[in-house]
Amino acid sequence: MYAAPQTPDGELLTVRPVGADTFRIEVGFRVPAALAPVVQGRERDLVFAARSRLARLGINVRPLSALAWDGPRLVLAAEVRALVRSYGVGPLLGGVLLPGLPVGRLVFCPPEHRLTAEQIDQAVQDNALQLPASYSIDHAGRFRIRPQGWTYALAEPLTAEALATIVARSDGKDVLNRIQVRRPVDRIVLPPGDGVITSCSMFLHEHYVVLESEAGPLGQHLDAVVLDPVATRGTNVFLEFFNHTGQRIVNPSVAASLYRGVETPALARRWWAIGADAPTREAEGPAAAARAAAEPGYAALAGLFDRLEEPCRERRYSHRLVAVVDDMEAVLAGAPPRAVWCRPPERSEPGPGADLSARCVAEAYEQPRALAHGTRVLGDVSPGARATLLLGYFPNLVEHTQICAAALEGKVARLIFRRASFEHGPFLSSRDHGRLADYEGLGVEVFWCNDEREHVVTHVFRGLRGYFVRPGEVERFRTSLVVAVYGSTRPLAGEQVERVRRLVENLNRFFGGNLAILTGGGPGAMQQATDIAHRLGIMVGASFIETVDQETNQTAEFYQTFQGRSRQARQRWFEIASFHLFFMGGVGTLEEVGLTLTDMKLGVIEVSPLVFFGRHDGDRYWQRLREQFEVMVAAGRAPPWLLSHTLMTDDPDEIPRTYKRMLELG
């Protein structure tokens, strides 16, 4: 995994108004223990990068002083100004500049990590990164970025409440993405004393970019100057300019430098030992490989579940295991857990709550009796114990509330479940996905002892969406560029399979070998794409839906499952994909086309090239759909990008060229 060496976001310490829309502030930065000794005496190599969401609103945070140590933290004086007149932020700015507000970070940019002109050019030729088409490189190793023909305006006037949400809440960027709309322009005009928000396309995999923020003849870039590896991928790489002169500037640009990211070791999440995560990279040598081979795997965990579930073998939902474990290694060796519950107490009269099904709990049906549940044993666990919880089934509503309460007290740090659902096998409900998000927010690790696949996987979020991933593949999952592949459960013909192979190979080469593909996980075209990707060494994911017409593939390195009633919710998990490819398909694929286009139209996902691939009876399979798109755009019922960003083809060599043209990449 590659990253820019940096501090967490610094917090605003003091605020003092000096004008109608200008403030002087002091910011404090906590320096991580691993970074502190590296930057001691090299504070000049630390670059302040203002928070992106502030800059996108035209709010600039400009350093006024050198960094100074104040005990274990670094302190910086800065000026805050609202620079884009049309956004109307100035009168509202004072209301959100409160102590504790995150305003930016410090990034370590050592000269020895800076690439030369020759190294930048070679990296571009090797597809180690993709820069905007209009870039140029000077002799000193700086390259100049010119924005694309877009500017960004607010779809509605900004209120004080919306501004506070955007700058202060964790999901504030989602609000900003919704109200900030992109508009095409023939040229970007920057009036005197005003700012403009624009963007370019760029894909960074192992490098980070530092933009220059000094005033120049082509404008001054705001102080959101660092573009990170992996996070910088796509068409909306924002650039924010201000005109400091008394004359208009047309088509501003910014100079930048490129730095090698710091390679950090991948850490495997281990279900048997809390706090014992350790590097598992092959570079550690034969000793590490031997240790990994000796570590307990699925068979050991499944055997433990079998042993603990032996007293409650009845096929009844009320007889489900809950066990609290302090020392997993000791329990694997035969020691008893701290507490075990697997069946409700005997009743003298029938109690409808005792055998309440998983579905009834999920639907929150009113019951005359309390549901019998095993998580009541958490009441006897000491706060701060950070125990592991073993569950025969993924938690229901009652169990979930008790687990969350225990997590808040530090009683539970890890959850391992064996079965996703009593009634739906390996498929999770929409409510289950919400509960997984709650566990992530509370810092509870989740593992699945998946009997169907005979492996143990951990739940990992990428952005807003979580997938189950093999522990050794977590960092690869987080950093790969994902391409979504949709298609029929019917297999493609021989010639089409070869074309798909060339297509996947071309894309992997185009993005420097950083590719992963995500399918619906079914047979036919999806399985063929999976097999091709694996032969090429490409990571594969699947988003499985409960259905009667397809078997799920067994080879995906990351996956998620959805019950049948969650069809549209499932599409949200394709948001991690940067690109979307539609192979020949039927009604189901057509539904996915509609959902993807709607997400782009509503700004849920970026507008990116859409490729419809395949040929049938001598014609391009999707050509009639293209004709319908033309009618919709001509009638004003669809946005123009529906034509400019759509390609109908069966030529695998045409697709990389089209990506470069549509994304305006060099």
Features:
666 residues, 26% helix, seven-stranded antiparallel beta sheet, alpha+beta, 14-stranded mixed beta sheet, globular, 28% strand, 38 strands, Deoxyuridine 5'-Triphosphate Nucleotidohydrolase, Chain A, Rossmann fold, Cytidine Deaminase, domain 2
| CATH level-four homologous superfamily name of the largest domain | Deoxyuridine triphosphatase (dUTPase)
Question: What's the level 1 CATH class of the largest domain?
Answer: Mainly Beta
Name the CATH architecture of the largest domain.
Distorted Sandwich
The CATH topology of the largest domain turns out to be Deoxyuridine 5'-Triphosphate Nucleotidohydrolase, Chain A
What count of helical segments does DSSP give? 20
The number of distinct structural domains comes to 3
Low-confidence stretches: 275-284, 348-359, 361-370
Strand content: 25-35%
The 3D shape can be described as globular
Structural class, by secondary structure, is: alpha+beta
Q: Please provide the count of β strands.
A: 38
Alpha carbon gyration radius: 27 Å
The rounded distance between the terminal residues' Cα atoms is 25 Å
Strand line-up across the major sheet: 24-23-25-26-27-28-29-33-32-31-30-34-35-38
**Major sheet details:** 14 strands, mixed
Mean pLDDT: 88
Helix content: 25-40%
